[in-house]
UniProtKB/TrEMBL annotation:
Organism for this UniProt entry: Dielma fastidiosa
Manner of cofactor binding, per the entry note: Binds 1 Fe(2+) ion.
Region listing for Disordered, in residue ranges: 1-23
Protein name per the record: Peptide deformylase
Family: Belongs to the polypeptide deformylase family.
Gene name per UniProt: def
Residue spans of biased composition, Basic and acidic residues class: 1-22
Keyword Cell membrane belongs to the record: no
Molecular-function GO term, any one: peptide deformylase activity
C-alpha cells in the first residue's frame, strides 16, 4: 500500500471529525500494512526531492483517519539532525498519565488535513506516558514523551476523537501566553 497526497482527507470533509475505532489485536495484515504505509508517507514527505516530485506537504505525523480509515493507528517520524529519527508506528495509543504543566509550539501547529492557516498557541501536556501496541516492535509498549514528541503524539491522538489542533486555540486571544507552560521552539 502506498499513500499519496490525494489520499489526505481535508478538514472540510465531515468524516475527519468522526471518532476512530479501537483496532483488534493481533493486528490483521491489512492494519499492519496501513500502519507501515502511514510511517512511509511521513518519511517520503520529509525528503525534499520526493515531496516536490509527488506533491507531498511535509509532515511529522499522520493518523489513519486522515486517509479515510477510522481506526486508532498513527505514524510519526521526528527527524533529528545529529541523532537517528524518532519513529512511532502505534496502534490504540492512549495517554495513561500526563504532567500538570502544559507546553506549546512557539509558532503554533499545522496539519496535513488543514490547508487554511489557523494561528495561535495550542496547549498540550508537557509530558505524557502512553501505552500502545508498537507495530515496529510487534508488542505492547509504554513510552514517555516530552517536548516536541509529546506535542506531536497528542496532536495525532486528537484525530482519533475528531479533534483538530485549531479546536484547542483560544479563539478570543490566539497568541495569549499560557501560564507556566513550556514553550517549544
Amino acid at each position: 500500500m502506498r499513500l499519496e497526497a490525494k489520499d489526505i482527507v481535508k478538514d472540510t470533509d465531515p468524516s475527519v471529525r468522526q471518532k476512530s475505532e479501537k483496532v483488534q489485536l493481533p493486528l490483521s495484515d491489512e492494519d499492519r500494512e496501513l500502519a507501515l504505509a502511514l510511517v512511509e508517507y511521513v518519511k517520503r514527505s520529509q525528503d525534499p526531492e520526493i515531496s516536490e516530485k509527488e506533491g507531498l506537504r511535509p509532515a511529522v505525523g499522520i493518523a489513519a483517519v486522515q486517509v479515510g480509515v477510522h481506526k486508532r493507528i498513527l505514524g510519526i517520524v521526528i527527524p533529528y539532525e545529529e541523532d537517528e529519527d524518532e519513529v512511532f508506528c502505534l496502534v490504540n495509543p492512549r495517554i495513561v498519565s500526563h504532567s500538570v504543566q502544559d507546553s506549546y509550539l512557539k509558532g503554533g501547529e499545522g496539519c496535513l488535513s488543514v490547508e487554511e492557516v489557523h494561528e495561535g498557541y495550542v496547549p498540550r501536556h508537557a509530558r505524557i506516558k502512553v501505552r500502545a501496541y508498537d507495530v515496529l516492535q510487534d508488542q505492547e509498549i509504554e513510552l514517555r514523551a516530552s517536548g516536541y514528541a509529546a506535542i506531536v503524539l497528542q496532536h495525532e491522538m486528537d484525530h482519533f476523537e475528531g479533534v483538530l489542533f485549531y479546536d484547542r486555540i483560544n479563539q478570543e486571544n490566539p497568541w495569549q501566553e499560557i501560564e507556566d507552560a513550556e514553550v517549544i521552539e
